[in-house]
Structures are given as structure tokens and as C-alpha cells.
Amino acid sequence: MWNKRPEFSAWLSEVKKVNLETLPNWEERQMFKEYMEDYNTATLPSKKYYNVDKYHQRKMFKEWKKGAKYRSVEVERTEFNDEEQRRQELKMLREHEKEAHIEELKHSMKTGMAQAMREQAQLREEMQYQYRLGNLEAANAIQKRLEPDAL
Fold first, then answer.
1. For residue 90, what pLDDT is reported?
2. Rounded CA gap, 127 and 112, in Å?
3. Would you say which domain of life the source belongs to (predicted)?
4. Strand (E) positions, 4-132?
5. Rounded to whole angstroms, how far apart are CA atoms 71 and 64?
6. How many CB atoms lie within 10 A of CB 56?
7. Between vectors from CA 114 to CA 112 and to CA 118, what angle results, nearest 5°?
8. To 10 degrees, what angle do helices 5-14 and 25-40 make?
């Protein structure tokens, strides 16, 4: 009875025009017996009452196949684990922030720090060239420029 609750509820409200929540338990069981009789003999008026989820999936697929533009359909929630959903949202938010931070670092590397590192490499090459030429004064001046500032 509990496995077919969504289908039974849909059948009860659409075919019998009865609200499930207003029925007493004994009447609900009687209606369920009638539903199961129709279910087992395959005489329900729609495929929807056999498997609601499959019915809605098939309906969405047909709309998509016809070329109907996909529009967000409000799906009835069957799982109410708000904490897990919020944890997933926070995880996705952190991942997006991390990606944005990495992109920002890449951009800064291309502009500021990377440029400074290239300049230092060029100065080292110039210093080695000056040593080879024997120009020790120019090589020492370049070496002083390369040394980190002493505090």
C-alpha cells in the first residue's frame, strides 16, 4: 500500500474525486482494494496510475522530442533533507569561489609577479654577460639590484 501511495492518491483524487486526507482508515483501505483490483486487471483509465514518475518522465521526453523549449517545471519535492541540500549548495559555492580565486591568481601572475620574475631573469643574464666581458663594476651593480631589500 505504501509503495503505490502516490499513484493511489492521484487515482483517488482524479478518478474518484475524493481527498485522501479526509477519508477514515477503513474507507481508505476499501478504496485501495478497489484501486488494486483495477491495477491488477490493468483496467485503470490512464498509464499515470501505474507509475506516476515514469508517466511524468515520458511526458517530459515527448515535449522535449516535439521541440518544445525546455522550461523549468516545478517538481513536487519527495525528499525533505534541507540540511543535505544546503550542504551541497555551500559546497558548490565554495568550489565557484575557489575557481574564481585561481583565475584571479593566474591573472595577477600574468601581469605583476610574472613580469617581475621575467625582469629578474633578464637582469641575471645581463649580470653573467657583464662578468664574461670583465666589467665587474656593472655586474656588481646588477647584483645589488637583484638582492632583496635588507631591513
1. 93
2. 23
3. Eukaryota
4. none
5. 10
6. 14
7. 120
8. 100
SS3 at position 72: coil
Residue 52 is placed in which grid cell? 506516476
- Residue positions counted in the chain: 151
| CB distance 55 to 9 below 8 Å | no
The position carrying cell 639590484 is: 145
Residue 6: exposed, middle, or buried by beta-carbon count in 10 A (0-12, 13-18, 19+)?
middle
Distance CA 49, CA 38 (A): 10
pLDDT tens per residue, range 43-64: 888 888 888 888 888 888 888 7
CA angle 50, 54, 59 (to 5 degrees): 110
- Is the full-model pTM beyond 0.70? no
User: According to the model, what pLDDT value does residue 44 have?
Assistant: 84
| Cell numbers that stand for 45 in this block | 483509465
The CB-side HSE value for 130 (13 A sphere, CA atoms) comes to 15
- Cα distance between residue 85 and residue 66, in whole Å: 33
What are the pLDDT digits (tens) for 87-139? 989 999 999 999 999 888 887 777 777 778 888 899 999 999 999 999 999 99
